[in-house]
Write a structure and sequence with these properties.
- With 218 residues, the chain is α+β, with helices and mostly antiparallel strands.
- It has a single domain, classed as Muramoyl-pentapeptide Carboxypeptidase, domain 2 (2-Layer Sandwich), CATH 3.30.1380.
- It is built from 5 helices and 9 strands, in the order ααβββαβββααβββ.
- The strands form 2 sheets. Strands 4, 5, 6, 7, 8 and 9 form a 6-stranded mixed beta sheet that branches.
- β2 and β3 form a beta hairpin.
- α2 runs parallel beside α3.
- The N terminus is likely disordered.
- InterPro entries: Extensin-like_C.
């Protein structure tokens, strides 16, 4: 009897190995989705450290926030994100720069390769910080007034093509496809995304901000 009991584990092991062989090679699990910026990114010294470690090109400029009006907290002049320069430097908060970095690496570059077959080499903007009210309600300050918003006009690619929001938004080809997907993809990174789908005030640009409200009209 003792010998019979000892053979049972061996039979079980053999059966398990046979079943594993029949099952075929295991498929690798899908990669996890990219991390996203959620809520208002935190400004302050650690935000600056994060930009430096990511090789973002910027200059630290004096803060102007006073708590009761226009001004930027943890202000920078941003030249380029990790892979993409801007057409000119833009004054923004460090928190917005962090969101733009995520947008570059997680949304724009993969999208450029997939839709355009060419790397994104420049982002054209119409401004970041400006002390003004909202287009929908001039009595309330825009997120631009805190350096937490940027208006994107166009995306330029390595092969020379430029996707312009004003001219190409409704195109049926790759330029329009890129713009519409770039707008929708921004909703996973920024708090508010306003595109030509929002209203006539945004017919020529994408408004991206990291303010306290959540709204996707991409």
């Amino acid at each position: 009897m003792a010998a019979a009991h000892r053979t049972l584990p061996l039979l079980a092991v053999g059966l398990a190995l046979a079943l594993a062989a029949c099952a075929g090679p295991k498929t690798a699990p899908p990669p996890p989705p990219p991390a996203q910026v959620s809520g208002m990114p935190t400004d302050g010294p650690m935000c600056i450290v994060g930009l430096v470690s990511a090789n973002v090109a910027f200059n630290r400029i004096p803060d102007t926030a006073k708590g009761d009006g226009c001004g930027i907290s943890t202000a920078i002049s941003l030249y380029e994100t990790q892979t993409v320069p801007f057409n000119r430097p833009v004054e923004v908060s460090c928190g917005l720069a962090q969101a733009l970095l995520a947008y570059d690496t997680q949304v724009l570059q993969p999208l450029a390769q997939r839709v355009m077959g060419s790397a994104l080499v420049k982002v054209h903007h119409a401004g970041g910080y400006v002390c003004r009210g909202r287009t929908s309600n001039r009595s309330r300050l825009s997120e631009h007034a805190y350096g937490r918003a940027i208006d994107i006009m166009a995306f330029e690619f390595a092969d020379g093509r430029i996707a312009r929001v004003k001219q190409n938004w409704n195109d049926r080809g790759p330029l329009g496809d890129f713009l519409r997907q770039a707008s929708k993809g921004a909703c996973g990174v920024f708090q508010v995304v306003l595109s030509p789908n929002a209203d006539a005030d945004h017919a020529d640009h994408l408004h991206l901000d990291v303010g306290p409200w959540k709204l996707c009209q991409g």
